[in-house]
Design brief:
Layout: E1 4-17, E2 20-33, E3 37-41, H1 48-55, E4 63-68, E5 71-72, H2 78-88, E6 89-93, H3 104-115, H4 121-131, H5 147-159, E7 165-169, H6 177-194, E8 197-202, E9 213-218, E10 221-224
Parallel strand pairs: 3-8, 3-9, 6-7, 7-8
Antiparallel strand pairs: 1-2, 1-4, 4-5, 9-10
């Protein structure tokens, strides 16, 4: 049986609007396997980002429960969720948000400073850049890097404090197909070699085959999924 790291069951999320209630999620069950790459697939508006925000402790469901190693995070305080995110979770977004006046290595090192990581920040930053194939580019500024290279710096930054899970929201959305495929292959290598659990959203059907588990959402409901 697959070792489930994160389980989300009966997840519903309602947002108030001027015209009434909008149910972004309508009762979704997902099971994230430990040390694997899980893909949440769906068109814009399908609910995949809302689901990602809930299972990454950025938001809480209207109904349902999310458990990390059988520990509920829905009942956690905001302070508890913030501590969980800082210690155990890494984030990668479509917008890489690198600091332009810092080199690739300094950008990763800065994230370690913020996390107050107990390690040699400079050495760990370079180690993570080497993991994503950017060792030779460590001293380059973001504007000297391609879009794909910038996204790899963002992945190194998310990985640096040794999180248990990385959540990536449309990390390939601003990249061409080939570069996006290279980024997802890096995710797969990190799960295989580093044992990191990774969950990413995408609307790119060409990336589906790489995921160890794939869940497809449509109008807030699960239409296809695998444990």
């Amino acid at each position: 049986m697959t070792d489930v790291f994160i389980s989300a069951e009966g997840i519903k999320r309602c947002f108030p609007t001027s015209s009434g209630e909008f149910w972004a999620l309508k009762g979704v069950d997902v099971y994230i396997p430990r040390g694997k790459l899980t893909i949440l697939k769906g068109r814009s508006g399908s609910g995949k980002t809302t689901l990602l925000n809930i299972i990454s402790a950025l938001d809480k469901p209207t109904e349902g429960d999310v458990r990390y190693d059988d520990r509920s995070i829905v009942s956690m305080s905001e302070k508890g969720c913030a501590q969980l995110r800082r210690k155990d979770i890494g984030f990668v977004f479509q917008s890489v948000a690198l600091i332009p006046m810092m080199t690739a290595q300094e950008n990763v090192e800065f994230s370690l400073r913020l996390a107050r990581a107990k390690c040699n920040w400079s050495e760990r930053a370079l180690e993570c850049l080497k993991m994503v194939g950017l060792g030779p580019r460590a001293q380059h500024l973001p504007q000297e890097l391609s879009g794909g290279e910038q996204q790899r710096v963002a992945i190194a930054r998310a990985l640096a404090h040794k999180p248990k899970v990385i959540f990536a929201d449309e990390p390939t959305g601003a990249l061409d197909t080939l570069t996006g495929l290279q980024v997802v292959k890096i995710f797969k290598e990190l799960t295989d070699k580093e044992g990191v659990t990774i969950v990413m959203t995408t609307h790119d059907t060409g990336l589906m085959e790489i995921g160890d588990a794939v869940y497809e959402l449509e109008d807030g409901e699960l239409v296809n999924g695998s444990k």
